Amino acid sequence: MFRALRPALLISIVAFGPGVGWAETNSPEFLLGRHPAAGSKVHPPTRWSATENVAWKRDLPGRGWSSPVVWGQRIFLTTCVSTGKEPEARKGLYLEDVDANKYPRETHDHLYKVFCIDLASGNVVWEQVAHQGVPAKPHHIKNTLASETPATDGEHVYALFGNLGLFCYDMDGKLIWKYDISPRNTQYGWGTSMSPILHQDRVYIVNDNEEDAWIAALDKHTGKEIWKTARDAHSNFSTPFVWENPLRTEIIVNGRKFAQSYDLNGKELWKVEGKSAVAVPRPFEKFGLLYVTSGHVAFGENRTYAVRPGAAGDISPVAGKPKSEFLAWSSKIAPYHPTPLIIDDKLYMLFDRGLMSCYDAKTGEAVYERKRIPVGGFTSSPWTYDNKIFCLNENGETFAIKAGPDFEVLYQNALADDDMGMATPVIIDDKLLIRTSARLYCIGKTTAESVAGSQ
After folding, report:
1. Tens digit of pLDDT for each residue in 361-418?
2. Which residues neighbour 394 within 8 Å (Cβ) at sequence distance 6 or greater?
3. For residues 396 and 413, what is the distance between their CA atoms, to the nearest angstrom?
4. In this structure, are residues 289 and 245 in contact, taking their beta carbons and an 8 Å threshold?
5. N vs C: which end of the chain shows fewer Cβ within 10 Å?
6. How far apart are the C-alpha atoms of 27 and 141, rounded to whole Å?
């Protein structure tokens, strides 16, 4: 439901950062760290616990489900700290108590914070309070007030707090500009979780709510609004995706009513119907196809689409009419929270309740369906290395699953009892960053285990 929680270009970005000791790969925005860098032969350890193969760990104050982003030796993430008693976060899937508007209203000031942490040591380089005040709107007990993952281009960090604004800092923590966002009501008071994305000299943000939904392009250097387009949409939690295909560059936004494509001037290009109560997974591209998917566990229909470049208008499947030539394939099977993962030519879907399905990514044909993972409750998205799929559940337990046509759970890695897990981890070379409700872990080689080719 709430993503920072997650979202997915499926490779790390290789960058040539200044200075000796900078990491060779960066993970600059939500879900860009789920694969090792292209061509890399190193990867993090495959085994860990709260103490085993932990290079360092850093306790974090407050509540936040933003994933870490990394540029060079610096990690950035957000949190929100109450000056009163922190609300208890809640795990699981449930249909009772869904209306956050019925929760007691917040009365204490909250500190909306941005952290910069050193990748090598885990030490805090700087922290800034973007805002202090009583939250204007409620949020679901499973959501937080800092669920949007920041974005960075190596010069600035862009931290979004949904009902508050977008804050731009330089790499040393100096506030450069801010873009105010008026608080709006969300469905059942569930709150916000659509992360900012960067493309060339622009930062794009989407604000889907029950009053005034929109998508906007801002000048990333000044925060000046370049354009803002109203959306016929309701509250949602999916981070947008920039699709650079051979025909054009498009901004793809997943939504409850439709997944929509916009050109770089904010004009709608095409749309495809979605019927789920919410659309959480982030769109992504592979094999020249765009994948969009949405599936609530109880309400609405689940839909997955593989879209070819060049579409126009409404390409939704309609009974009795020929399928659009721009739909390579479609399915009525889709996950709720986790964004699917493609390895080789196979698409893996992780379902919240602890099931996994595998399909041919090019045709949609099933390889296997609904295989059971021992302990369910998955909100974060899966990641991969060493021919394994790693799935972090809400208890802080990671299950290693064999990649390929035959489903097999290989083993389980567990963290501490207070390490609730809903943020998607990030691969940086031979390190894995896992953000939990209590702390940030840097998983790295601290034993005799070989980093490359380990079992």
Report:
1. 999 999 999 999 999 899 999 999 999 999 999 999 999 999 999 999 999 999 999 9
2. 91, 92, 377, 378, 379, 420, 421, 422
3. 8
4. no
5. C
6. 28
The span from the CA of 75 to the CA of 137, in Å, is 29
Residue type, 371: K
Q: Tell me the pairing of strands 249-253 and 258-262.
A: antiparallel
Q: What band does 96 get if pLDDT is binned at 50, 70 and 90?
A: low
Is the dihedral angle over the CA atoms 210, 212, 216, 221 positive or is it negative?
negative
The beta strand positions in 96-233, using DSSP E, are 110-118, 124-133, 151-152, 156-161, 165-170, 175-180, 197-199, 202-207, 214-219, 225-230
455 pLDDT more than 60: no
**Angstrom distance (rounded) from CA 345 to CA 244:** 20
Reduced to 3 states (helix: H, G, I; strand: E, B; else coil), residue 100 is helix
Instruction: Kindly state the tokens that stand for 354.
Output: 């602890």
pLDDT confidence of 321, banded at 50, 70, 90? confident
Per the structure block, which two tokens stand in for 455?
Answer: 């079992």
| Residue whose tokens read 């981890």 | 425
What residue type is assigned to position 89 of the chain? A
Of the candidates 336, 272, 334, which has an alpha carbon nearest to the alpha carbon of residue 308? 272
Q: Do 439 and 51 touch, CB atoms closer than 8 A?
A: no
What's the CA gap between 293 and 291, in Å, rounded? 7
Which are the contacts of 270, defined by CB distance < 8 A and separation ≥ 6?
260, 261, 311, 312, 313, 314, 315, 326
Show the CA angle centred on residue 395, arms to residues 2 and 357, nearest 5°: 70
Report the candidate in 6, 5, 22, 3 with the shortest Cα–Cα distance to residue 14: 22
For β-strands 426-428 and 431-435, DSSP reports them as antiparallel
Helix, strand, or coil here: 101?
A: helix
| Cβ 413 vs Cβ 388: under 8 Å | no
Q: Tell me which residue has tokens 């506030």.
A: 175
| Token digits of residue 32 | 């860009």
- pLDDT tens-digit profile of 230-247? 999 999 999 999 999 999
What's the CA gap between 28 and 37, in Å, rounded?
13
Nearby residues of 144 by Cβ (< 8 Å), 6 or more positions away: 2, 63, 64, 65, 79, 80, 89, 191
Distance CA 164, CA 435 (A): 23
